[in-house]
Write a structure and sequence with these properties.
The chain contains four helices and no strands. By secondary structure, the chain is an all-alpha fold. The N and C termini lie close together (7 Å). Helix 1 runs antiparallel to helix 2 and helix 1 crosses helix 3. It has one domain.
């Protein structure tokens, strides 16, 4: 392929990498935080369910805290930040793959 395509692939890869790392970091933090919230609210059973079903547990606890505290809750802000970073990371990974050498 030509030089422009490989340059775009590298550019989108470099731009997307911080968002991938941010999504991974914020996702890990919100997962552990969701387990702690579940333990405080429902005890060991709630934390075990959240451990076994991480995505469903994070979605549940994010919406529950959002309903109770709106965006005044730090857990909701971290979860929304994780969602935004994940969305942006997917866009740049897609664009990087689109311009990859074939």
């Amino acid at each position: 392929m030509n030089k422009e395509n490989s340059t775009l692939e590298i550019l989108f890869g470099w731009i997307g990498t911080p968002f991938v790392l941010g999504a991974w970091l914020l996702g890990s933090v919100s997962y552990i935080w969701a387990v702690v919230i579940a333990f405080k609210a429902w005890g060991i059973i709630g934390s075990f369910i959240t451990l076994c079903l991480p995505v469903i547990g994070q979605i549940y606890w994010t919406f529950r805290n959002w309903k109770l505290y709106s965006f005044d809750d730090r857990f909701v802000l971290v979860s929304v930040g994780c969602l935004i970073c994940t969305f942006i990371a997917f866009i740049f990974v897609y664009l990087s793959g689109k311009y990859a050498k074939q």
